[in-house]
Amino acid sequence: MTPNQKHPTESETQKELTYIQKVWHTVAIVALLVVVILIARVAFNVLLMVLAGILISVYFHGFGDLIQRRTKWPRRTCMLISVGGSFVILGVLFWFMGTKISNQIAILSDTLPHTISTAKLKMSETPLGKKALEYLSDDNSDELFATARKFFSTSFGVLGDLYIIMFLAIFFTTSPNLYKDGIIKLIPGDKRELAHCVIDRISVTLKGWLKSMMLSMVLVFILLTVGLSIMSIPVALVLALFTGLLKLIPNFGSAAAMVPGVLLALTISTNTAIIVALIYIVTQTIVSYIVTPLIQKKMIDLPPALTILAQVLMGTLSGVLGVVLAVPLLAIIMILVDELYVKKIDKVV
Predict the structure, then answer these.
(1) Can you tell me where the transmembrane regions are (predicted)?
(2) What are the residue ranges of helices labelled H in 124-138?
(3) Most exposed: 205, 249, 292, 317, by fewest CB within 10 Å?
(4) How do residues 2-22 score in pLDDT, each as one tens digit?
């Protein structure tokens, strides 16, 4: 060591150690936040599956209530008929329609390349179609398909999610009071009456949403099957079933379901494609703006812009499951805000 060099003082050494400790504390906090965010995201997907199980359970109980009102049979018997009868009805439908649907799916898969090439040829004949093809032919198409793959991804995979959801639904159906009472016990004693009120209101709202969705899906399936069959559109049954299932996704589902039907009609003629598009639009308008509002009287009124924002946010966070459950989740949140905040503010004012 040269004479000009000085030993670091004790205070300088202490400051250096303090700085290093602060850096490591900061790194630890950031790492902890990342872990918490990842856990929260996974937990959120699990909560969505719980909500899906609750919705199926609500359906079973609603069906059981209907049977009990009509027959006056014991509750346990009605619930057994509700659960067993639902699976029997699904089995019978797949038995009678499964072969035809599978054949039409095979036809649709085989003819898809020819359909796409024919649709591109028809679209290239119009200026608007050329612009659409230019947009889809560059890097935007890769980005679009990547977004679609991400959008339709789920945390455990589709089959795994369905497996968990069905088991949750069965557990919630067999012992609903066990879980309801467990939630209420977590609430302070003076707030339990309010908790009962909130849970009952949420139950009524979810029943209204389920009733409207099921009837809307059936009506869309029937009307489109008839309309597309009249127009001699191939695989009309599959297209109608696809549209009915996508009715679970408000706004975006209707637009997405319309694409394959119009593309198939475009292979026949441009006029046929226009008529088929009108069939889709008229069907969706009748169901969405006439039938659904009549059924959803007991459901909370959701602003359309807020519904779309909720779907986009939920789709980004949890894929297709989030989009499907965006509306009931938004309804639950609005009920909680109304009961726990808005009504208290109104009382104070």
Answers:
(1) 23-40, 46-67, 79-98, 151-172, 217-242, 248-266, 273-292, 312-337
(2) 127-137
(3) 317
(4) 555 555 565 655 655 566 766
